[in-house]
Structures are given as C-alpha cells and as structure tokens.
Design goal:
Protein name: D-malate dehydrogenase (decarboxylating)
Structural class: alpha/beta
Radius of gyration: 20 Å
Bound molecules: 1,4-dihydronicotinamide adenine dinucleotide, magnesium ion
EC number: 1.1.1.83
Number of helices: 11
CATH architecture of the largest domain: 3-Layer(aba) Sandwich
CATH topology of the largest domain: Isopropylmalate Dehydrogenase
Keywords: Manganese, Metal-binding, NAD, Oxidoreductase
Cofactor: Mn(2+); Mg(2+)
Shape: globular
CATH superfamily of the largest domain: Isopropylmalate Dehydrogenase
Strand content: 15-25%
Organism: Mycolicibacterium goodii (Mycobacterium goodii)
Strand order of the largest sheet: 2-1-3-12-11-4-5-10-8-9
Length: about 350
C-alpha cells in the first residue's frame, strides 16, 4: 500500500457512526487533492472487552507503532467501568507514543449558537500538556478506614516537559496571531507553578515576536466567558488545560463539533486524532450524532500529515454545512441526520 498509513479505531457507540462519516469526508478530499491513504481498522472497544477481557490485544501498542496517525471515535459503554476504557486504551496510547501535546481548537461558526449572548469571532487554541503535571501516578493512600486515613498525590513538572509544551505553544502562535496566554496559579501553588512560570518565561524570551501573558487560572476561566475573542493560543498544565478546553468548547456552542489532537510533535511516534465527545450511549445507533467533531479531527490529521490545503477545504465545507439548518444535526437545532450531513460535506468537496 503506497501513501501514509492510518490506524482507525471507531470504538463504541456513536464513535463508529462519526468515524464512518469522517472516513467518507477524507476519501472525498483525498480524491480532490490526489492524496492516498492506507487504512487499517481495529475493533478495539468496550464491545471487544466484553467479549475477550481486554480493550486491545497485548501487542496493541506495537501494532500501532508503525502507522503515521491514529483516528479514534470514542470508547466507553454502560457496564464497562470508564477507568477500564480509559486506562485500557486511550492513556496507554497517549503515553507510549509520547503524545505530550493535547490540542483543542475552538471557534465560532455561523449557525452554531453560543450560550453566551455576544460570542462572535472566537478563534483560539488550547494547548494542554498531556503526559505529566497533575495526572501522575506518584502518591498513595494510607490507613484506609481509620480516622487518620490520608492520601497524597504528587504533581510532576519537569524542565524538559514544560519547555517543550511552551515551545509548541509559542511556535503555534507564530503561525497565528502571535499571542500566548499561559495558565498559572503561582500565587497559591508555590512550588510547581512558579517553576512553570519561570520556564515559560525563559522559552518566551526566545520568541520576541510573540506577546505573552500569564494569567491565574481562576481569572482566566472568567475571561473565557467574558471575553473569549481576546485569546489566540492558551497553554496550560494537564489539569488546567483539561478544564479550560471543555469550558472553551462550551463557549463555542456544542460538544458535537469539538475536535482534538494528541500530538507527538517530534513525529517519532504516531499522533492520535479524536473528537472531544464520548460514545453517547443515549443517542447511539440512531443516525443522529453530529459528525463534525470527528470530521474536524480528521482535518487536523490531514494538516499534521502534511496536507494543509486539503485540511483547509474540509474546514470550509464544515463552515458551509453548519451555516445551513438543512445540513445541521438536531443538537444544533437542525433537521439533518448523520448520513445527510456527511453527504452534504462530501458534496462540498467533490
Ligand atoms: P458524551 O460526550 O458521550 O455525551 C454527552 C452528551 O452529549 C450526551 O447527551 C450526548 O448525546 C451528547 N453528544 C455527545 N456527542 C454528540 C454528538 N456528536 N452529536 C450529538 N450529541 C452528542 O459523554 P458521556 O455521556 O459523559 O460519556 C459516555 C461514554 O463515553 C462514557 O463511557 C465515557 O467514558 C465515554 N467517553 C469517552 C471519551 C473518549 O473516548 N475520548 C471522551 C468522553 C467520554
Ligand atoms: Mg476532559
């Protein structure tokens, strides 16, 4: 098979529906641009877990290693604890492949109402540190069940880890509006976050063309709601980035359209692209899921694999499709089902 190789993991619930849609859209834009991808599909999911006892085979990580990218729907299903699906598939992939950047673009579209009265021209990216920080396994719990029961969990911030995420944010800002906001709380968390601030400032000094602000996370959360249009690139630790990216997606209007990328910017390992939403058991199997989050994630994959013109075409098709109530899904007040939105996107790209 010539061309780049993509591992496709549709997963559970609407994951399978939105990935089918994303595949159709990539096929259309690939034909237009003469791009050739080789796909391999994997049935790794909660359904597989129920059948075999594992989310993916023991050699799953090795199987993925030689692909150029991974496209994932969503995993999770009632009856399988969420920590099983998360720690049995997603987190091992992110960690084994050093996907230290979690990238979540947020923008407003005509046709997608924000819960905020005046959110317009919002266009920013949250860059979340994805492998260290507050999500560490270092810690423990003592004296279970006794009055002196206690627990400790250590946050881990390394010079290498903070430097590379800051560098990624600064370089991304250079391709955009040249403005980075760094999320901190160095007034209250007195060891790790002053260190974060110091290292971010050192890296920023190497990019005099980028303007940088440091904002405490509480005030920053308020500004996301009050002035979302002022942001360009927002960089934060694993926990701060997680919370800010969900807040930002809500400001933009719908979880159904929000995309994400887990990137290894060194390109030693495959990066993984997935919509922000989960498997949505409440609407699964009804052909009503919004496919735009998965399609936008696929556009990020095209961009990462060196096809920016194809990615831009997909974004244009998304904007046109969202603007028309006849080609929007019900979560956005539209009258179309998943198949109809997919067909509209494919039509735009043919
Ligand atoms: P969810 O994102 O699946 O659903 C939340 C709500 O948003 C539901 O009412 C759902 O119908 C709606 N929704 C989500 N995506 C939509 C779309 N594309 N179009 C229209 N409506 C949409 O989150 P929930 O319910 O908390 O989790 C369900 C399962 O998904 C759980 O097992 C959870 O662990 C898993 N999950 C997996 C993720 C992943 O694979 N990365 C991420 C988030 C949740
Ligand atoms: Mg989250």
């Amino acid at each position: 098979m010539s061309g780049q190789r993509v591992a496709v993991i549709p997963g559970d619930g609407i994951g399978t529906e939105v990935i089918a849609s994303a595949r159709a859209v990539i096929d259309a834009v690939s034909t237009r641009h003469g791009i050739e991808f080789g796909y391999t599909e994997f049935d790794w999911s909660c359904e597989r877990y129920t059948r075999t006892g594992t989310m993916m085979p023991d050699d799953g990580i090795d199987t993925l290693r030689d692909f150029d990218a991974i496209l994932l729907g969503a995993v999770g299903w009632p009856g399988v604890p969420d920590h099983v699906s998360l720690w049995g598939l997603l987190i091992p992939i992110r960690r084994a492949f050093r996907q230290y950047v979690n990238l979540r673009p947020i923008r407003t579209f005509e046709g997608v109402a924000s819960p905020l009265r005046s959110a317009e021209n919002v266009d920013f990216v949250v860059v979340r540190e994805n492998v260290e920080g507050e999500y560490s396994e270092i810690g423990g719990r003592l004296n279970r069940g006794f009055p002196d029961e206690m627990t400790v969990q250590e946050s881990v911030f390394t010079r290498a880890g903070v430097s590379r995420i800051a560098d990624f944010a600064l370089e991304l800002a250079e391709t955009r509006r040249g403005y980075v906001t760094s999320a901190t709380k160095s007034n209250g968390i007195i060891h790790t976050l002053p260190f974060w601030d110091e290292v971010v400032a050192e890296r920023a000094a190497l990019h005099p063309d980028v303007r940088i602000d440091s904002e405490h996370i509480d005030a920053l959360a308020a500004k996301f709601v009050l002035q979302p249009e002022r942001f360009d690139v927002v960089v934060g630790s694993n926990l701060f980035g997680d919370i800010l990216s969900d807040l930002a997606a809500a400001v933009a209007g719908s979880i159904g359209i929000a995309p994400s990328a887990n990137l290894d910017p060194t390109r030693q390992y495959p990066s993984m692209f997935e919509p922000v939403h989960g498997s949505a058991p409440d609407i699964a199997g009804r052909n009503i899921a919004n496919p735009v989050g998965a399609v936008w994630s696929a556009a990020m994959m095209l961009d990462h694999l060196g096809h920016p013109a194809a990615a831009a075409d997909v974004m244009e098709a998304i904007a046109v499709t969202l603007a028309d109530p006849d080609t929007r899904t019900a979560d956005l007040g539209g009258g179309a089902d998943t198949t109809e939105v997919t067909a509209a996107l494919v039509r735009q790209l043919s």
